[in-house]
Fold these 4 entries.
Entry 1:
Amino acid sequence: MTIVQSTFDAVVANRRRRKVKRAAMLATLAAIVIALFALTLSLGQSYTPPHQVIGVLLGEDIPGAAFTVGQLRLPRALLCVLAGLCFGLGGVAFQVMLRNPLASPDIIGISFGASAAAVFAIVILSLDGPAVSLIAVFSGLGVALTVYGLASRNGVAGARLILVGIAVSAMLESFVAYVLSQAPAWSLQEAMRWLTGSVNGARIDLVAPLLLALVIFGGLLLARGRDLEALRLGDEMAAGLGVSFERTRMTIMVAAVGLIACATAITGPISFVAFLSGPIAARLFGNGGSLLIPAALVGAVLVLAADYCGQFLLPSRFPVGVVTGALGAPYLLFLIIRANRNGGSL
């Protein structure tokens, strides 16, 4: 009885230590997000003292700082945080659901589908503003359903879905190249923003729609977090645990696509944030526990840091999507090489 009790106590203590460690890691990530957010508001081409930043946030009309912080830096920083949360949360949901680190919206064409529709709306239909964003959102969902449908044969295999997604992306890329070849000079720059990912046109009125999407779709993902964790064990095991895996997979896919498409509609496809956030979170937190919130925080850190680097720490100013693309491409090659060496499939 003593041995059984001591074993039980050891298991409880180990579980408690893991919870404390996880809470500490989450608090650290949240603190990094807050620190980067504060840095973005305070330090740019000019320095704004913290007390002036706080005053602007509280509604004070401080000459110079009210415009620099309130009109320029604050909308940009808020969009970086919200877009990072959306990309990180949506990306890890796909990766966990399909049990494959390559199954991110960047790789399987969802982000590019939203961008392709936006480019078509800008160049061919001469639309702008909310109309372009709505077209991008519905196009991202349509591409996701198309890829899912083409890959659904006797269940959805992660490798098959990735290959179908790559093929769809290639077709969309050809379509975008044709549209850009017909684009007049005045719309070419706006179209290119949708292909690189940028927060250069950040406005405070863009924050509310993205926040609403995060609350609705992110809340849905978090509510289905336990079912998502069950899918990591495989469809048969999930069914044994009482999870309707087809219905759960469809719900999670719609929520994840909603996050990715809405973020893409506001900022364009910020490359590889959805792809990198999950693996980085898994490295930090291990495989125990849900990766949804950790990956979301990692996504916010990546976008904030990449945007600041692209603005102030490189020889020239680059959109945030260029910086994240430079980080993500080598990691993608690393994953492919590792899978090839292990003799496994994608």
Entry 2:
Amino acid sequence: MRPNIDTHDYEVKMKAIQRFFEDGDKVKVTLKFRGREMAHLELGMKLLHQVRDDTQTIAKVEAEPKLEGRQMMMVLAPR
């Protein structure tokens, strides 16, 4: 994903995440920052918190969001 993802693209990703959880798989959500997006890391954190909140009923956070270079990652596991 990218920090400025469109709403429809976000919904498509959320459906894919839900499908992975139904199969019993873990999901690693990765945000890639390019260029000046690195100056707005709070947008990426906000997006990952939104993913966490949207999947709260079917998943738990296994690894909190963290920044590694130009990528921000979070791991979710099914409940």
Entry 3:
Amino acid sequence: MLVLITYDVNTETEAGKRRLRKVAKQCVNYGQRVQNSVFECQLDAVKYRQVKDVLEKIIDKEVDSLRFYNLGNNYKTKIEHIGAKAGYDVTEPLIF
């Protein structure tokens, strides 16, 4: 299933800046960055729970937020891209 992960991490403090880097680094492990704080991740149920758990442990719930949009398996008709930086289909093999 395709899951869109978005986050907003308060970076007014050095600790916040560290959290932001940690969240971004973890998201890269699970999917592709499509905008600064937005990742498209192709996940099964186990990976979905895993990434949620990892990210929840990083953020400060008092000042930061995470959003998970479950687009399911029929996501291709739900996504429309306009402009630069078109992504790639994470389900297709990469050929270099």
Entry 4:
Amino acid sequence: MCTECGCGESNEHHHGHSHGHDHDHDHDHNHNHAERVVNVQQSVLAHNDHIALHNREALDARGVIAINLISSPGSGKTLLLEKTLEALNGKIKCAVITGDQQTDNDARRLANKGAKIYQIETKTSCHLNADQVAAALPEVLDDDTKILFIENVGNMVCPTAFELGEHFKVALLSTPEGEDKPEKYPVLFATAKLTLLTKMDLVDALDWDLKACQRSIQGVHPGMMTLKLSAKTGDGMKAWLDYLASLT
């Protein structure tokens, strides 16, 4: 198991090497190794949760609502943020922390839309962590900031395990991904407060089944709120913007 995020990958996933052993020695080695991995993982998560708590306290002190956007790559997080920032510019002061393994492409897309943007490059890591957010907060928040969007690295698994100090998570599920992703990746949908069904303009072309998708979501998180939208066409965006306005 990955000692950083518990993603299920072995240590060879990170270090790229293996060793040959006889069976008995290998059994003892694996047992001790598994214990060390669990201990390290617990230590990493405990430290992260401690910093996340301080992040939340800092946000609360400033009256800022932080929303952690989590989804697979290509679900439309950045386009959604582009359209959201444009619509809220001059109405609700926003800020964005955006994470990717490489490049500042998202930060450049979100620039000049009335919000401060802070790009984090995680290099080999598959998620943002609370330390990175803590370092970003003084740079990205103004005195009148009301909503902080945290655009996590594209991944439905690892980002869910790491609290950042956000007030809640929002899961994005795009229509090209199919209807059953909540069943395959239940932790995200079980812990998120809201699911945004994105790229609804593609429904007819994909023969996508809304009722089947909603059954999948409700099976994991009964009563979960879902909003359907297309950031490209603007359909459904008003409900999302009204929801954000209700938070401030």
